[in-house]
Amino acid sequence: MPSERKRDEEKEKEGKKVTSKDKEKEKEKEKEKEKEKEKDRKRDGAVAGAMGKQRMLHPGNVLMERYEVQGLIGGGGFAQIYLAVDNTSKQNCAIKIEPTSSDIRRMKLESAVLLVLRGKTGVPEIKAMGKAPLGHYIVMQLVGRNLSDLRRQLPNKKISSRTLYRAMLQVARTLSLAHGAGFLHRDLKPSNCCVGFVDVTRIYLIDFGLTRQYLDKGDMVRKPRVGVGMRGTLRYMSLDAHARKDLGANNDLVAFLYTTIELGDGSLPWTRTRSADDIIKLKQAYVNEKLCAKQPKLTKLAEYIESLNYYSIPDYDKIFSLLEECNPTDLREDECYDWQKHTCVMDHSVQKEASTELSERGDTALIKK
Ligand SMILES: Nc1ncnc2c1ncn2[C@@H]1O[C@H](COP(=O)(O)OP(=O)(O)O)[C@@H](O)[C@H]1O
Ligand SMILES: [Mg+2]
């Protein structure tokens, strides 16, 4: 290693002897550093959680005599996502499958939301649902890479202000459609926002696996339940979710804000914090202008979201215009997005073989009863 040689030379210049013990110690230190880096990489979710688990589908499997599996492209806490080809239309599609052992209500709710929101901008189109020997699945429109993956590929691992607010405005619009239809997302985060597979300037909101119907038949906000299970992902969940309160539209917006801060700053103040109690303390300490210190234009939006409560019906038009105000004034409408300006891998990495890698990701959803 050149750095090692340099160090030896420097030590020799200083008249110090470089012993083999010194070298061994250094090597140990390097190894430890590497291990730490690897842990961080896994924690940050660079390796999809499903990659090391048993595959529920295999390349060549054909579902419904139509959808031919190509390989695994993703996975989070519960599901595995496969790339497939629709042999009838010859188009690509995605299959999301969850083991039969997991709670079927989650898939049912997810498909219910996708059906209600079918054809709406920013929602992948649901094509079919079914049951394979190992799991229940949904066949849906294939989308592109998620914003968590894309951020990591950009310079300084940040999405620039020339891209971020245009992208998040699209997410906000789709979220408002879901809320309007009576559904909360409850797991909004960078890995649940994806660019389009064909049009990479379009952003899709995916993964309605933790959704909840929060409006009743008369479009009234349902009464909050007490002592509910914890829903969401530690890093992005609101303080209400930490407190196991029933969640409202305002809590999706808190997750939306944390997502925007992370994508623009490259991290959140609690990114490296493990314990939930410490995360809570940091979330309490970092609000409004302190949270938005590196993106001060977001402060107004942060203050507005902070002012909402469980029963509030958010003023989405206000949210859209506050986001638009964050755009640089010289931004052209047709300007490329960061992932078009820089060389980013946009295709899915299709895993055909089972990998033995097991991982733990810091941004995986959790459900605690
Ligand atoms: N329709 C899709 N097209 C392409 N990739 C997808 C699609 N749905 C999900 N993915 C990828 O798989 C990952 C996990 O999918 P997701 O639905 O979020 O599952 P989980 O509920 O396990 O988090 C996403 O972050 C995304 O990168
Ligand atoms: Mg997800």
From TrEMBL:
Q: Which SUPFAM superfamilies match?
A: Protein kinase-like (PK-like)
Q: Which keywords does this chain's UniProt record carry?
A: ATP-binding, Kinase, Nucleotide-binding, Serine/threonine-protein kinase, Transferase
Q: Which residues bind ATP?
A: K96
For this UniProt entry, which segments traverse the membrane? none
Keyword Kinase assigned to the entry: answer is: yes
Q: Which residues lie within the region annotated Disordered?
A: 1-54
> Which GO-annotated molecular functions does the record name?
ATP binding; protein serine/threonine kinase activity
Enzyme class, UniProt record, top EC level: transferase
Name of the featured protein: non-specific serine/threonine protein kinase
EC number assigned by the record? 2.7.11.1
InterPro entries tied to this protein: CK1_Ser-Thr_kinase, Kinase-like_dom_sf, Prot_kinase_dom, Protein_kinase_ATP_BS, Ser/Thr_kinase_AS
Q: Which species is the source of this protein?
A: Caenorhabditis auriculariae
